[in-house]
Amino acid sequence: METFDLLVQGLGVAVLPMNLLYALIGVTLGTAVGVLPGIGPALTVALLLPVTYRLDPGGSLIMFAGIYYGGMYGGSTTSILLNTPGESASIVTALEGNKMARAGRGGPALATAAIGSFVAGLIATIALAFIAPWVVRFALAFGPREYFALMILAFVTVSAAFGDSTLRGLVSLFIGLTLGLIGIDMQTGQSRLTFGIPDLLDGVEVTTLAVALFAIGETLYIAAQGSRAPDSVEPVRGSLLMTAADWARSWKPWLRGTLIGFPIGAMPAGGAEIGTFFSYAVEKRLTRHPEEFGHGAIEGVAGPEAANNASAAGTLVPLLTLGLPTTATAAIMLAGFQQYGLQPGPLLFTSNPQLVWGLIASLLIANFMLVVLNLPMIGLWVRLLTIPKPWLYAGILLFATLGTIGANPSLVELGLLLAFGLMGYALRVFDFPIAPVVVGLILGPMAEQQLRRALAISQGDVLVLFTSPLAAILLTLAALALIVPTILRARGRGQILSELAADAD
Amino acid sequence: MRTTTMKRFHTGFATLAAAIRAASAVEAHRVPAARDLRTLEIDPETFRNVRL
Predict the structure, then answer these.
(1) Given a cut of 60, is residue A94 above it in pLDDT?
(2) What's the whole-number average pLDDT of chain A?
(3) Could you give the CA distance from residue A483 to residue A477 in angstroms, rounded to a whole number?
(4) Interface of chain B against chain A, CB under 8 Å?
(5) Interacting residues of A21 by C-beta distance below 8 A, sequence separation 6+
(6) Is residue A27 within a helix (H) or strand (E), and if so which, with residue range?
(7) Cα radius of gyration (chain A)
(8) Which has the higher per-residue pLDDT, A118 or A35?
(9) Closest Cα to residue A382, out of A1, A2, A14, A31?
(10) Shortest Cα–Cα distance, B17 to chain A (Å)
């Protein structure tokens, strides 16, 4: 009941005209970047960080969350009409969605994607509102050693557990952790890794790193792929409305997609893509029309689209309640909180309830806005694809540079932006994950602070980290998350080598 | 009965693991391994037609 009251109060904040405007800007921008291939919510929020730091914190965060939700909605349009996913979380949608469009059923495909996203977004946001206070109550009992253990778990899962290579993930993480060491040590006052450069005494700005890696690095990478054949849009023929049979075949996949996407989004390093692949597999196994899969089955659009939107809300659970970013976009949103001096976590719910509940309530409103924006304006979104790519990339580079320099006018900052941008490009070229770098920079100093606090309390006894049952469980989980995937990958490689050997015979 | 439950658990776990690997590949702008796509009930040829 208390949660319901808080949510109602949050709605009071969310319907303020300025907050409605921020939400509208967020969902519009989010849909646009979702439509444009190669540009995602992480890049967009990163680009906006430097230019929003003087705005109202609540409004800016509402806008960032709107971009995240909108990106998930917009990605499906190009997947269905062009077979070119605007977002990596919409790749699975293209498998059946584009086939439906080619068969003249683009309208129902777009409709089930939009309505499924709406249903999933709504249910998942309500789930977020009701689960968050429980997690907060649990997290309030955390001391320094539990927080340290939680951060170790986050480091391992984000960097090593779910990628292709543990080593590459850990290298990315340690780059971030090293960058996090730069600046003045708060306990001793000593400067670390500053090389006598005064601008580095305050440490590396998370916004500079995020903009460089996600905006500059990603843009350089996409531009370096060269031009490809022009996209041919599959025109939407017939009605946008779904038939009774389409509704009957869609509602269960929407609900199953939500059930799959929400917990996976909340999982460290979950990400929306995992839920979409899993949902597709589940729908294909449960369908009564298996013969339609591969030729345009509506369940293959409804389930994955619901999963990716539910996962966006799931991501906000650990972010808001524990201060843990589980995806790249969440890591950048965390940087957004920090630029206003706010630290997401259990204390934010007690110290700043208006902001948190206003943000959660605004997501409900953003969901309604997205349905209105997406379905009737499909033609407009598709026209965005006619923007020449060189203009787009040049615009992103210019905006990223001006934004960073505007927020922090310094030559050193400009140099760091360019150096980190090139580093981001190199990391992508050599298949190193990007998110662990940002997570390392954000959580590294916090983990260090909690470790030193725990050791100060125990007068230097390291065993104190293992004597709390909760911390011991979290550290054991972290060890398992590091060891088990490494063994599974080694076994997988062994199987592939055996298959190759058998083929060669 | 117990064997069926174990088999379902194993299938679910294998599907989730394949989904995690496939997601990691597409995030890095790569086509996932054919074996993972087959576990996810996706035809690798169809997937290659999607313009990543």
Answers:
(1) yes
(2) 84
(3) 10
(4) 15-30, 33, 35, 39-43, 46-47, 49-52
(5) A59
(6) helix A17-35
(7) 23
(8) A118
(9) A31
(10) 9
**Residues of A with CB below 8 A from B51's CB?**
37, 82-85, 228, 231
Q: Min CA distance, B49 vs chain A (Å)?
A: 8
The shortest CB-CB distance from A91 to any of B20, B35, B50 is to B50
Q: What is the pLDDT of residues A127-151, one digit of tens each?
A: 988 888 888 888 888 888 998 998 8
Q: Which residues of A343-365 are buried (b: 16+ CB within 10 A; e: fewer)?
A: ebbbebbeebeebbbbbbbbbbb
Q: How far is B15 from chain A (nearest CA, A)?
A: 7
Using the 8-state DSSP alphabet, how is residue A105 labeled?
-
Tokens of A421: 């941008």
CA distance A170 to A152: 12
Q: Are A311 and A271 in contact (CB under 8 A)?
A: yes
Read off the pLDDT of residues A160-186 as tens digits, 9 standing for 90 and up: 766 667 888 899 999 999 999 999 887
Kind plus residue range of the DSSP H or E element containing A301 = helix A299-322
Distance CA A474, CA A149 (A): 6
Chain A residues contacting B via beta carbons under 8 Å: 37, 79, 82-85, 88, 91-92, 94-95, 98, 162-164, 221, 228, 231, 271, 273-278, 280-282, 284-285, 293-294, 428, 431, 433, 488, 496
User: What is the predicted ipTM?
Assistant: 0.94
Backbone angles phi, psi at A346, to 5 degrees: -60, -35
Residues A485, A159: Cα–Cα separation, whole Å: 12
Specify the DSSP element, H or E, that contains A184. Answer: strand A183-184
Yes or no, beta carbons of A94 and B50 under 8 Å apart: yes
Q: Closest approach of chain B CAs to the CA of A186, in angstroms?
A: 36
Burial of A461 per CB tally in 10 Å (0-12, 13-18, 19+): exposed
Q: What is the DSSP string of B1-52?
A: -HHHHHHHHHHHHHHHHHHHHHHHHHHTT-PPPHHHHHHTT--HHHHHTS--
The helix/strand count (H/E) of chain A reads as: 22, 2
Let me know: does A36 contact A79? Beta carbons within 8 Å.
no
A374-A376-A379 Cα angle (round to 5): 85
Pick the closest to residue A299 from A317, A273, A280 (CA basis). Answer: A280
d(CA A51, CA A233): 34
> Residue for token digits 């996976």?
A264
Subunit contact A162:B52, Cβ cutoff 8 A:
no
A328-339 vs A299-322: helix axis angle to the nearest 10?
A: 40
- Could A164 and B25 be called an inter-chain contact, meaning their C-beta atoms sit closer than 8 Å? yes
A450 within 8 A of A147, measured Cβ to Cβ: yes
Q: Are A101 and A234 in contact (CB under 8 A)?
A: yes
Structure-block tokens of residue A85: 């996913």
Report the C-alpha dihedral over residues B20, B23, B25, B27, rounded to 10 degrees: -140
CB A307 within 8 A of CB A276: yes
Given a contact cutoff of 8 angstroms between Cβ atoms, the answer to whether A410 and A144 are in contact is no
Looking at the DSSP assignment, which residues form a beta bridge with residue A15?
Answer: none
Q: Indicate the SS3 state at residue A358.
A: helix
